[in-house]
Amino acid sequence: MFNHLKSYCLTLGIGLLTLTLTIGCSSTSSLHNELSGPISVPSYQIYYSKASAKTLSREQNLLTNLLLVLESDAKSPEDKAEVFYELATVYDELGLENLARFMLMNSIVNKPGFYKPYELLGIYFLKEGRVADACDAFDSAIFLGKDKTYAYPYLNRAFAMYYSKHYKLALEDMMYFYREDPTDPYRLINLYFIELKTLDKQTAFDNLNRRFEELQAKSKKKIWGEILVKLCLNQISEKELFEDIVSYQNDDDLFQEHLCEAYFYIGKLKLEQGLDKLAFDYFSLCRQTRKYGFLEYRNAYLEQHELEKKYSPLVLYDEIDE
User: Fold this and answer.
1) CA-CA distance, 180 to 149, in Å (whole number)?
2) DSSP label at 72?
3) Higher pLDDT, 95 or 4
4) Span 246-278, pLDDT tens digits
5) Average pLDDT for 171-192
6) SS3 content of the chain, % helix, strand, coil (to 5)
7) What pLDDT does residue 276 have?
8) DSSP-assigned states of every residue in 13-24
9) Which of 115, 126, 181, 307 is most buried when burial is the number of CB atoms within 10 A of its CB?
């Protein structure tokens, strides 16, 4: 009887699954199409950017020098761990993730108590959807670096919590990161987007406005990111933002950096407005800047993946294609 019941349930289950997939594929396919098609970003905001020849040359020379240092027999395992980590960060900036991972593992092998490699490994784990592994790596970075004035693992653990929808935990870590330097406009912005998930919109907006006023009163130097805060506070328009960005066109590196940041945060604002397709396109433009080492570039991938899951629930994590 139980075998018969099991067979019946299996047959029924397969039938229901087939029906669900048939209906679901039809539904999610049409929904997924909402993310495809012509780009919806205004043409005046679409630019091509690249790293300067000077920057690429500097990174190539740095790689050469670091590899030469590794060949020295005089280096202790601790020293080699530092060099492997520096190599990993250069490879990461160049978008060569596999080489960066290899160097990170070499760094840890030479000095298991070295905290810095764990953070970058955590970032890679998060991109793969391995949230638990990412948090373990960030926890290791925090524990091993507890005597250092280094708060960035809290930032990245906040993102792990945010993208796994543990918003209150994300807020705790982001608040810690913000308090370490309240004059950094990028900390204000990222705290704002997390507060949008934990507070009502008006309160989050008021908090951002208050913190920005405090920043302007305390800050001794102007940071470009302040213009992004003004955008979030509706103090400037997107047109004014891009007029400012275009003024940096003669500096390839700054132009690339500012475009990467602007595309990402505008995408976040569009997402909050329920404009998913437009947000998706801004995140695509952010990734097209290929500013690999920037958190905005990394998180643009995560944001796009969340949107793909929303419109096609069968989407799984996979390696980012470059």
Assistant:
1) 9
2) -
3) 95
4) 999 999 999 999 999 999 999 999 999 999 999
5) 97
6) 75, 0, 25
7) 96
8) HHHHHHHHHHHH
9) 126
CA–CA separation, 275 and 298 (whole Å) = 21
Q: Are 289 and 297 in contact (CB under 8 A)?
A: yes
Average pLDDT of the segment spanning 101-122: 96
Q: Which structure tokens are listed for 236?
A: 């400037």
The position carrying tokens 């004059």 is 183
Q: Model pTM greater than 0.90?
A: no
CA distance 231 to 185: 12
pLDDT in tens, 195-226: 999 999 999 999 999 999 999 998 888 899 99
Q: Quote the percentage of the chain above a pLDDT of 90.
A: 77
Total Cβ atoms within 10 A of residue 145:
19
Q: Compute the half-sphere exposure of residue 233: CA atoms within 13 Å on the CB side of its CA.
A: 18
| CA–CA distance, 185 with 162 (Å, rounded to integer) | 19
Six token digits for residue 140: 């290791």
| Stated length of the chain | 322
Tokens representing 127 are 């991109």
What CA dihedral angle connects 114, 116, 117 and 121, to 10 degrees? 140
Query: Concatenated DSSP letters for 206-252?
Result: HHHHHHHHHHHHH-SS--TTHHHHHHHTTSS-HHHHHHHHHTTTTSH
Q: Within 13 Å and on the Cβ side, how many CA atoms surround 136?
A: 5
Asked whether the beta carbons of 282 and 271 are under 8 A apart, the reply is no
Strands (E), 69-158: none
For residue 220, the model assigns a pLDDT of 81
The upper half-sphere exposure of residue 167, i.e. CA atoms within 13 Å in the direction of its Cβ, equals: 11
Per-residue model confidence (pLDDT) at position 222: 87
> Do the beta carbons of residue 245 and residue 278 sit within 8 Å?
no
By the 10 Å C-beta count (0-12 exposed, 13-18 middle, 19+ buried), 274 is classed as: exposed
Among residues 48, 79, 94, the alpha carbon closest in space to that of 246 is found at 48
Q: What is the DSSP letter of 45?
A: G
Residue 266 CA from chain centroid, whole number = 14
Q: Which two three-digit tokens encode residue 196? A: 């949008």
